[in-house]
Design a protein that fits this description.
Length: 366
């Protein structure tokens, strides 16, 4: 029998995850667990892998062959893995450690303060209160912050008086990494850099996001995801994770665990880059597994365009219909409402096979 935590009041630190999922967890046990239990069985024999490591210092080499080899290695990793690690990236270890301390202070606030006080533009999220199956259960809390919100004063309070400045430094540093990596990957596909043709179009300091994540220790780790399987809906994600581990991704049709690297940032290709590259680069499904003993922290930078920006293509013919980022996000939201999960890019194929329907007969609003 599951030993559930006592009802969580609004004065406690952690979000009321166990309480919210009480009936769901009981039902999952009775029904054999479904997707989450399958994930637990997979994790028992999980293969741990090192992601490809790209030394960004090589890009600045005076030897053109060295710089080219680095860019090609990056493009190869984006094509074969959809994920890779970067070192010598310019984001200082001391800054990232300071960010970790600020995150800890932020997430130690009472749940009622995080949920109701409008911190960081009201960007607090936790779990999935609308989950209808164990496969939709996520054991996390986060602040998903639009970059313009960092400069506002709603996080300058009490023990959070230094949070804003550290977040801005991290966002600026990760933005430099994202711009460098995205630009090189685009150049590899023939895009001419510089001027008005800067890549990705429509991305600047007002359109991107910084996300602070905490995955509390989970007493039901065998039945729960830290974050359900998904792909990212941006161009690129830059991730700094701690040494607890838990990130897993699909490689060669099976889940593999990503081995943490203390000095590396993780880069993963998002849906928009896969579409822009005509599927040369891969937006790969990934997840976070729950941990029964240790909490996990991470910080992620999402390289996103404005809502009205057209995603475009590196060349024709493209398998995808033209769409804007706003249209894509609305489609994903509709996916979740209709099916309980994201469909994403297949909805925008010129000849879609979603639900076995062609474009002429598919009604995404049904």
């Amino acid at each position: 029998m599951l030993a559930f935590a006592k009802r969580t009041s609004c004065t406690t630190t952690d979000p009321p995850l166990a309480d919210s999922y009480r009936a769901l967890l009981c039902r999952g046990k009775l029904e054999g667990g479904g997707a989450a239990s399958a994930h637990a069985v997979e994790s028992l024999a999980m293969l741990e892998r090192d992601l490809p490591i790209i030394d960004l210092k090589r890009l600045a080499s005076r030897d053109a062959r060295e710089s080219k080899a680095c860019a090609e290695a990056m493009a190869r990793a984006a094509s074969e893995w959809g994920f890779f690690q970067v070192v010598n990236h310019g984001v200082g270890r001391e800054l990232l450690e300071e960010m970790r301390r600020e995150q800890a202070r932020l997430f130690r606030l009472p749940f009622g303060t995080k949920d109701k006080a409008g911190l960081l533009n009201g960007s607090y999220r936790w779990g999935n209160p609308t989950a209808t199956s164990l496969g939709q259960l996520s054991w996390f809390e986060s602040f998903h912050v639009p970059l313009p919100s960092i400069s506002r004063e709603d996080c300058d309070r009490g023990k959070l008086s230094t949070l804003r400045g550290v977040m801005q430094e991290v966002a600026d540093a990760m933005s430099q990494v994202a711009g460098t990596v995205a630009g090189m990957l685009a150049e590899n596909l023939g895009h001419e850099a510089g001027g008005e043709s800067a890549f990705p179009a429509g991305c600047d300091g007002t359109t991107c996001f910084l996300r602070l994540n905490r995955y509390p220790a989970c007493p039901f780790a065998a039945d729960s995801f830290g974050m359900v399987p998904h792909t990212d809906s941006d161009f690129l994600t830059i991730l700094c994770q701690d040494q607890v581990g838990g990130l897993q991704l699909i490689k060669d049709s099976r889940w593999v665990a990503v081995k943490p690297h203390a000095d590396a940032l993780i880069v993963n290709v998002g849906d928009l880059f896969q579409a822009w590259s005509n599927n040369r680069y891969k937006s790969v499904e990934h997840k976070v597994v729950a941990n029964s003993k240790a909490e996990r922290f991470s910080v992620a930078y999402f390289l996103c365009p404005s809502s009205d920006s057209s995603v475009g293509t590196c060349g024709e013919p493209s398998p995808y219909k033209p769409f804007t980022f706003g249209e894509y996000r609305r489609s994903v939201q509709d996916d979740v409402k209709r099916t309980g999960k994201k469909i994403g890019l297949p909805n925008f194929l010129k000849r879609s096979t979603v639900h076995g329907l062609d474009d002429d007969t598919m009604d995404l609003s049904s």
